[in-house]
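Chapter summary example.
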Amino acid sequence: MPPAVLLVRVGLANVTAPPHAYRSWDGAKDQLVEVTDAWFDRLRTWVEVITGQDLDPWHRTYAAQAV
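The structure predicted for these 67 residues follows.
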């Protein structure tokens, strides 16, 4: 059996976001929200490859019944 793999920490760095050229009201918080889903999707894919597990929260699930 191969050794277990564990992801311990995920970190975000505090940096200054560049201003949008066409959305002057858009701040760093808004930009972070726009990219967070894509970033976690890429992280999930990487963890799936490393661990060999399906971590997709949107996959279909089926109810099981005892016979």
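To summarize the output: The chain has a mean pLDDT of 76.
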